Amino acid sequence: MKKKLIILAAATTLVLAGCGKTETAEVTKVPFKEGSAALLTSIDQLKGQLDANKIKDAKKLSTQLEDQWASFEDEVKPKFPELYFKVEKFLIPLEAGLKQDKLDYPTLTALNTNAKAAMAELTTAFTENKGAVNKDVIEASKELQEAAKAYNKYVQDQGKQLVSLLEQLDTAVKSGDLKKAQEAYGQSRMPYERIEPIIETFSELDGVMDARVDDFKNEKDPAFTGYHRIEHLLFVKKNVKDAEPFSARLLEDGKKMQQAIAATTIEPSDFIAGVGELMEEAQSSKITGEEERWSGATVPVIRANVEGAQAIYDLVKGELKKKDAALDEKISKSLAAVIDTMNTLSPVGPTWNDFGKLDQAKQVDLKNKLEALAEPLVKMPGTLSK
């Protein structure tokens, strides 16, 4: 157990180095059997390269591992959220570690071994359909149907709030007041992040509104628009005037997103599965600080992801308590710990503390608490489907 804790501590450091889970380019989707076999083959190849200290060959496998997992992970998420989380717990820091200038061979070897074991467990479960979330049970529950209706209303409300806050951002940018524009930027991120799993289903709009600079030539690329073009202009260039066309475009895209959301009906199994996606975003991607690299608003966006997960949990906790009171209690306590930690790191409201300037020990503590919350939350869909 002590050895495993040391490995996970080292893994956390790798993720916090700014190389956590990244947005992968479009990859060809393949069936689970084909994709999992390819990934396990790559994991075996990596073992040989690590054992032989072949640095260049090992580094080349990082992108390959990412793409292979991305090729079939969407088939895993809704059926086996707990095992999905287990694989990512080792695979993401493994990929991150392979991107470092200097490879930490003992940690990478241990992560590779654990990733293989997790993939083997997932492969067995998937092949035998053992422990899969029973969608039919969830859809047939009257209580969960009512919860889904309430969640639909929550999502609609967040969509409306998104447009309202983007209007405030556009107004602040046009006023020329940098401080107000920066604060309005941060506030406008909140509803977007609370319902991110729903927003991501509208991939074309999401790709325009929330694209990272990594997908473009540079910060000046004309195709680079949306939130993060505005973020760069407001927090790096401190140029409010140049942000005007981008804030106007973001507002129009936000209105389109709100209309798309308004026409959507979310089923019980879909909204319950969203809890895992929100926590994955928070503890494996957002925590690196990469997404809000210029604004430093990492804690607020993580808080919004957690609030979105809490909204789902609050709607189903009555049913969850009936089926597994211990799990419900663990989620409740872990949720309180995460919220308390975030509130000590950064205030709630229009201002925030730059995540990049926080002590790494505090960053690691938040990462660990997020993971401690994610672990019981991803068990929720399976428990509710029993």
Automatic annotation (TrEMBL):
Record keyword DNA-binding present: no
Where is this chain's protein located in or outside the cell? Cell envelope
Q: Where is the Imelysin-like domain?
A: 148-374
The organism's place on the tree of life at top rank: Bacteria
The protein's predominant localisation is other
Q: What does UniProt give as the signal peptide span?
A: 1-17
Q: Which UniProt keywords apply?
A: Signal
Kindly give the Gene3D superfamilies that the UniProt entry links to this protein: M75 peptidase, HXXE motif
User: Pfam families, from UniProt?
Assistant: Peptidase_M75
Q: Which PANTHER family match?
A: IRON UPTAKE SYSTEM COMPONENT EFEO
**What family does the Swiss-Prot or TrEMBL record give for this protein?**
Belongs to the EfeM/EfeO family.
- Write down what this protein is called: Imelysin-like domain-containing protein
